[in-house]
């Protein structure tokens, strides 16, 4: 099934989610069709409470759809095991582990790596972690404790942890939301470099339209709750993209067009459980 | 951490001045050694009776350690079970609080009834007196794990056991060691109570006999032995704590 990077990776067929169940439940996601290709970098943008995070929960199998089906590699979700890497807004590093051990954690948990964890933790796995840390510029901090890092360094570590086990699918839930503008742009670069090198399929949830336009190859705009996809467009800027791109007219036009698609309905904000 | 030399020796200074003041107060006010012996009298009594004290101290140390170890194993197990489930937490808590509210001296006669006087009641008392603080602390440590940490594990499809082993247990270690330091001193209290009530061996029993023959300095020598053992174990667990759970203090280990 492996070809030019456009084969069907994950397919949503009429997938809807209603929290609470029954007729009086809260509809979080209207029945949605969505096809994700291997190697896609999809950004989900939309107002608060539009079901962006619900989609992440669905694909990571934390949540089951109320209606419809999700297929992975042509079979129902769960039938074919696949690896997920996840990073949230809070870096949530384990304070009792060094940076290196934090990054190594997925190798201890995820098949098939965990079967050989004891044998390889000091050799192959360690080299692998160090290579990744080297790439994001954290190798000098491999033996540091997480609380000794700055916010940006913590998120770099978090990204490494989400990628170390070579996930089929990388899920990013506003990973740079808590960072200042400069650090955020630095991390855009880091993430783009890692993506170009490893080409995981990525779903990025973000509030930041510039972030979406800069990083993604495809942007889905979602409506306010109950969420549905109101716009689905490809982003054609050549890679690697440089940060100066954000000042170019085409980029600004794209961001403005996206902004126009997003309708804010403040009264649904309190429902933003996602 | 940089500490001035004064800060390092401050605890020792306090202890020394405490004993010096005690000594001087006894001398100045002419207090009889039958009421409150002077520290020097206590120390000389200790050396005089050392061969006689030694087997008692050994016995107390033995019962306390066995009881404390049992208490740690049981407390840790219960704490993990209770902390892992909200239902268990809410269900078991009232019973635990009830049991812990019972004065432990009151259960010694029951143990004596069941197992006879001697070593076993002392071990059991030492064990049950230290279980509760351990259970509460470990359960709290596990129950208060940040949901984000669990989310990370769940996205990796970790099992409940893996989450407990990699997140819950390490997360509760600072709580566990905080409770150990309290528990080990409580264990001494438990075993000495049991020895006082129902045993013919141990420091508690020795102190009881000494006080009935008005050998007050020997009673205080017994207290000194207990205090020394208590400080010793507290120090040991502090050192282990710093190695195992030092991350909680945000200090380089």
UniProtKB/TrEMBL annotation, chain A:
Superkingdom of origin: Bacteria
SUPFAM superfamilies the UniProt entry points to: P-loop containing nucleoside triphosphate hydrolases (SSF52540)
Family named by the database record: Belongs to the ABC transporter superfamily.
Domain ABC transporter, residue spans: 10-249
Matches recorded under PANTHER family: ALIPHATIC SULFONATES IMPORT ATP-BINDING PROTEIN SSUB 2, TAURINE IMPORT ATP-BINDING PROTEIN-RELATED
Translocase in keyword set: no
Protein name per UniProt: ABC transporter ATP-binding protein
Automatic annotation (TrEMBL), chain B:
Topological relation to the membrane, as annotated: Multi-pass membrane protein
Keyword Disulfide bond (UniProt): no
Localization: Cell membrane
Keywords, comma-separated and alphabetical: Cell membrane, Membrane, Transmembrane, Transmembrane helix, Transport
UniProt GO BP: transmembrane transport
Pfam families to which the protein is assigned, alphabetical: BPD_transp_1
InterPro entries from the UniProt entry: MetI-like (IPR000515), MetI-like_sf (IPR035906)
Domain ABC transmembrane type-1: 57-237
Gene Ontology CC terms: plasma membrane
TM regions (residue ranges): 12-36, 61-83, 95-117, 123-145, 175-194, 214-240
Family stated for the protein in its record: Belongs to the binding-protein-dependent transport system permease family.
Protein name per its UniProtKB record: ABC transporter permease
Organism: Histidinibacterium lentulum
Lineage: Bacteria, Pseudomonadati, Pseudomonadota, Alphaproteobacteria, Rhodobacterales
């Amino acid at each position: 099934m492996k070809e030019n990077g456009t084969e069907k990776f994950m397919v949503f067929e009429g997938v809807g989610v209603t929290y609470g169940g029954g007729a009086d439940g809260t509809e979080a996601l209207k029945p949605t069709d969505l096809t994700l290709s291997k190697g896609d970098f999809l950004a989900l943008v939309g107002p608060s409470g539009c079901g962006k995070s619900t989609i992440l929960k669905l694909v990571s199998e934390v949540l089951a759809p109320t209606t419809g089906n999700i297929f992975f590699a042509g079979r129902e979700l769960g039938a074919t095991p696949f690896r997920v890497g996840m990073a949230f807004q809070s870096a949530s590093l384990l304070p009792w582990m060094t940076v290196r051990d934090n990054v190594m954690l997925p190798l201890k948990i995820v098949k098939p790596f965990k079967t050989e964890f004891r044998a390889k933790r000091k050799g192959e796995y360690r080299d692998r972690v160090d290579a990744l840390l080297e790439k994001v510029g954290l190798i000098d901090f491999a033996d540091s404790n997480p609380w000794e890092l700055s916010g940006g360094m913590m998120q770099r570590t978090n990204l490494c942890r989400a990628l170390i086990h070579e996930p089929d699918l990388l899920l990013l839930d506003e990973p740079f939301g808590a960072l200042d503008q400069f650090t955020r742009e630095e991390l855009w670069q880091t993430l783009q470099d890692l993506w170009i090198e490893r080409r995981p399929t990525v779903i990025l949830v973000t509030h930041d339209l510039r972030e979406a336009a800069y990083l993604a190859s495809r942007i889905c705009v979602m409506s306010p709750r109950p969420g549905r996809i109101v716009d689905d467009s490809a982003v054609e800027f050549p890679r690697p993209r440089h940060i100066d791109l954000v000042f170019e007219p085409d980029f600004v036009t794209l961001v403005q067009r996206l902004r126009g698609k997003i309708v804010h309905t403040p009264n649904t904000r309190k429902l933003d459980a996602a | 951490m940089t500490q001035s030399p004064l800060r390092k020796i401050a605890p020792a200074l306090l202890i020394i001045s405490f004993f010096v003041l005690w000594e001087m107060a006894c001398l100045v006010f002419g207090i009889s050694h039958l009421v409150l012996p002077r520290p020097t009298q206590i120390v000389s009594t200790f050396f005089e009776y050392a061969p006689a004290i030694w087997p008692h101290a050994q016995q107390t140390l033995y019962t306390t350690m066995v009881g404390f170890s049992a208490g740690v194993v049981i407390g840790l197990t219960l704490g993990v079970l209770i902390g892992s489930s909200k239902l268990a937490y809410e269900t078991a808590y009232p019973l635990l609080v009830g049991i812990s509210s019972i004065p432990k001296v009151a259960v010694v006669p029951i143990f004596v009834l069941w197992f006879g006087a001697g070593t076993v009641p002392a071990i059991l008392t030492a064990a049950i007196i230290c279980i509760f603080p351990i259970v509460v602390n470990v359960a709290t440590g596990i129950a208060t794990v940040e949901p984000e940490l669990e989310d990370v594990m769940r996205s990796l499809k970790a099992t409940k056991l893996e989450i407990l082993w990699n997140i819950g247990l390490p997360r509760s270690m600072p709580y566990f060691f905080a409770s150990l330091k309290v528990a080990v001193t409580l264990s001494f209290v438990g075993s000495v109570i049991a020895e006082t009530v129902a045993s013919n061996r141990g420091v508690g029993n020795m102190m009881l006999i000494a006080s009935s023959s008005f050998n007050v300095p020997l009673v205080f020598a017994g207290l000194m032995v207990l205090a020394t053992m208590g400080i010793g174990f507290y120090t040991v667990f502090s050192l282990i704590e710093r190695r195992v759970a030092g991350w909680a203090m945000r200090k380089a280990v």
